[in-house]
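Thought: the user asked what Large ribosomal subunit protein uL4 looks like in 3D. I have the sequence; next I should run the structure tool and report back without guessing.
Action: structure_tool
Action Input:
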Amino acid sequence: MKVKVQKIDGKASGDIELNDAVFGVEPRADILHRVVTWQLENRRGTARPTRERSDVARTGKKFGAQKGSGGARHGDRGAPIFIGGGKAHGARKRDFEQSLNKKIRALGLKMALSSKAKDGLVVVDSLELKDAKTKALAATFGKNGWSGKVLVIDGESVNDGFKKAAGNLKGVNVLPAMGANVYDILNHDTLVLTKDAVEKLEARFNG
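Observation:
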């Protein structure tokens, strides 16, 4: 698949041949749903448990006579009715992490990239700007027609100046190629890839 390459300022900069094995896969809703669900569940933190009767550091020794005190019978300071005792019917620990086959994860990312290749993919030479300031970057995005939510993916690392300026723009996110994921790709209107990022993504599957 051949697509046009442009500079960050919108000027034409030739063509690039995209690998059909990465950018030409027919998307399937069920695969994408499984991968997105897996990602979002793994982002959730563990539900913290309360300490129950067996978890508190109190003595289990019987501390009073069985009869004759006029009070109730007790044999454990860790009982929920005492200060410092365990919680009765407390929250239990819950982990939300799911497992997913690596082949399905890779296939999901290919399908997400392929869906953007059909509509919403822009390839640029690099992210280098003479004036990497928020105002200048906003003007550049507007000139290129990149509106709504924009995801920019660079090679191994992202230029700090560009990243800071982009961080001030609403709906704009910047990621390195190795941080590309299905949820973020599908959750943005426009996907901007540098030529370096294209090479890294294709090598990620070929390697």
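Thought: the tool returned a structure. Summarizing for the user.
Final Answer: Structure for Large ribosomal subunit protein uL4 predicted. The two ends are 20 Å apart (CA to CA). The chain has two domains: 2-27+101-206, 51-94.
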